Amino acid sequence: MTDGRDELNEISGKVIECAIKVHRALGPGMLEGAYQVCLIHELVKSGLKVESEVSMPIIYDGVRLSSGYRIDLLVENVVIIELKAIERLMPVHEAQLLSYLRMSDKRLGLLINFNVKLLKDGIRRVVNNF
User: Fold this and answer.
1) Which residue, 7, 56, 95, 114, is the most exposed by fewest CB within 10 angstroms?
2) What is the 3-state secondary structure (H, E, C) of the chain?
3) Cα–Cα distances in Å, from 11 out to 52, 57, 59, 62?
């Protein structure tokens, strides 16, 4: 019996494949928005449902408050993708993604920094253990 991990692994694998295609075509050095639109195109082309710039409210004191936070990509309504095009990933970026996972009750997120020579060096898998 699985608890959804197989599905999450399959989706995250497809996301990584698509991100690698985008990185091979564009290389490092572009703005985050360029990678985002190209990755959305690849994900949709591969048959995945993708939402972009998903509003992330905060529930505080039992009240749903608009926060201005936005998830870069939500794939199949289960995997959060946070995109970067920066010199290097920092712990604060993983903390940001983990916060998004907790606020949305999602289990898996991928932090992808396209500003690297080899994309495998720019990918971090973040798991919300609830």
Assistant:
1) 95
2) CCCCHHHHHHHHHHHHHHHHHHHHHHCCCCCHHHHHHHHHHHHHHCCCCEEEEEEEEEEECCEEEEEEEEEEEEECCCEEEEEECCCCCCHHHHHHHHHHHHHHCCCEEEEEECCCCCHHHHEEEEECCC
3) 16, 25, 28, 32
Task: Please check the confidence at residue 58 and state whether its pLDDT lies above 60.
Answer: yes
Q: Which residue, among 37, 98, 47, has the nearest Cα to 75 in the 3D structure?
A: 47
What residue has token string 């798991």? 127
| pTM of structure | 0.92
